[in-house]
Amino acid sequence: MDLKRRLWIAFASIIVGLVVFALKLGAYWLTGSVALFSDALETTVNIASSIATLAAVWFAAKPADSNHPYGHDKAEYFAAVLVGVMIVLAALSIFRAAWMGFISGDSPHYSPAGIAMNVASAVIIGVWARYLIWHGKKDRSPALTADGKHLMTDVVSSVGVLGGVVLVLITGWTILDPALAVLVGLTVLWSGWELVKESVGGLMDEAASAEVLEKIRLQIAEQGEGALEAHDLRTRIAGKSTFVDFHLVVPGSMPVETAHEICDRIEAAIAQDVPGARITIHVEPEHKAKHSGIVVL
Fold this sequence. Notes:
By secondary structure, this protein is an alpha+beta fold.
C-alpha cells in the first residue's frame, strides 16, 4: 500500500470516529443510560488513537537517514503501544461512570431513536474495523492493525451495551445498567493489555514467525547453489520490514564475483517470498564452516 493510501485510511478513521461518537452521544442524551455513556466515552479514545495512528503512519514512511539508517518503521509500534495505553485509560473512565451509576440508581428511559443511533454506530464501526484489520495485516502495518482491533472492541461493547439497555427497559432492573458498564470496561481493559503486549514484542526486536523462518531457510538451501552452508540465521521484525542476516560459507577459492551472484540470487528469492525483507549476508571461506545450520542443496 502506498503512503498516500495509508494516510487516507488513517485520516478516514478519524472521521469515522467523530461520526460514531456523535451517534453514541446522541443515544446517551436520548436514553440517559450510564452504559451508553460509557460506550460513547470509549469512542473518544478511538478518535485520539486514530490521530496517533495517522502521525505514526506518516512518520514510519519517512526514508532512512543518517540518524535512522534502518528507517522509521518502529514508529508504528509506538503508536500501537499508545493506543493500548489509551484503551486502559478509557476502561478506567468507564469504571468511574459505572460507579456513579450505582450510586445514583437512575434508570434509562426508552427511546427508539436512541437505540437506532446506537445500532447505526455499531454497524459503521464494525465495517470500518474489519477494513482496517484486513489492510493492516495485508500490508504489515502494526498501527492500522492495532487501530482496527481497538475498534472491534468498540463493536463488542456497543452490542453488549445495547442488549443490556433493552434488558433494563424490559425488566426494570436498574442495577443492570451500571453492571453492564463494568463488564464493558473489563473487556476494554483486556483488549488494551493484549495490544500493549503485542506491540512491546515488536519494539523488542521479536523474531519472524516459524513459517517465515522456514521460507527463508528453504530459499537459502535451494538458491545457494555453489555455496557450502549457511549458519547463524537471525531475523527481527520492525513494522512492515523483516530484517534477515546470516553467514554464507563458500569455497575459499571462489571468486568474489561468483559469491556475489549467489548472494544476489538468494536475496531475490527471499524478497519474493517475504515482502519487505531487508537482507544482509556475510560471506565466509570454507574453514569458517560450522557444519550446522542450513545445508545448501
